[in-house]
């Protein structure tokens, strides 16, 4: 069973042949009140070139009505369903049918109600149990294709329906909300523009239902007496048939609602034509609060119909009350359509499930293989890196072996103490590129290098002797960097080695010498350059540092030192 509706706003739409209507209802603490009424006129089908254009017109009118409602705050949207293919019938199943088998019995009865055009087509049906013992129910059936087009119309307008009910279920809900109406016989007549729904209740129970394919749209403006009498006779024929079947004398009350009930000339005519029965409009003010819309309903003076502006919206109000009923799920055509669509989707999913499982398994296997390939690629890269490292180590080892074979130096095993004592003398000499790099790095600004020579001891001594014979006294007169500023230059170093240095040279072992030729601006920069070479272990000691004077500006220098 359905639980009661939650508090909030509910909108009910009614697409008729004369107007598109909507009623907004607010529920608070189980009490309902009508908040707003909206409508837009519908142009006749004959004014459009085809059915598609007319359908697009209905969509646009629905959008206009919905735009004036707070759609973002509405909990549910409902609709009234009317169609010439909609068939409704009172059914009395055999009393021995158990309650759980009643839907299947009603489905068989619904199939028999379909027109020959749709006899073999899928259909949807809704029902409402009127009496349990003996069982009695009202049944409404519609081809599924027509109901689907109805849902597509609202979907195109941006409205998601949660409930769609036939008009007969709304009439039942309106009758149940109005107490003490017409005992023993009452007739509710929904007088529409293109059709009329007639219900007859006896002792509060629905006993007769009929749809008359004629309405207020058949009347002139204003309605002629002959037109109204012809329409009233169709209603009286239904009353006569009901009296013949039920053995009742006459109909006590007639309650009119719908758009046609607002015609004052027909209302006056019906009071005289159906006498002694009481004719009036359906009043729902006792069942629902209509005070918020009373300012919109300026009642005309005189004995005419009451609540004229509310009457066309009463079928939509009845659908809301039917939706709030606990038995609503059985009568909700929209819910059954959604259920059928869900079953169809599940059936397709079940049919495609093996395929999806196969695709999923293939994807899993593919992903595993891809990860495996990536892992193998990583392992292959690591092996390649190790192979490259091993190859480089092998090349380095071969180079070292080649050097050892070329040097043919005998291996001498020394004690740690002897190794520490001989370590300063066993340091390897720097290569030529290292000497060039460090010489350029230690070169101060203002000093240029023009020539660098690495010589043996004998070559160095021959060159020193030749330079001393050519210019024995040039080194003593070399000006300092400070001459341009008028300051005396510091005394230059001696051009030749001293007696102590000669003694040290005799004691030192043989080695190679570095000779650097260049130009400098002053003695201070040259001295810093020489000191930097010694600190960088490019030279072990300076053997000769000579500055050759050459007028003003840069001066040529010669620096000779012993390599480590």
From TrEMBL:
Gene3D superfamilies named among the record's database cross-references: 3.30.1490.300, 3.30.420.40
Membrane-spanning parts: 355-376
Feature: compositional bias, Acidic residues: 461-471
Claim: Membrane is one of the keywords in the record: yes
Residue numbers spanned by region Disordered: 458-514
Keywords: Membrane, Transmembrane, Transmembrane helix
Protein name as it appears in the record: Uncharacterized protein
UniProt source species: Candidatus Ozemobacter sibiricus
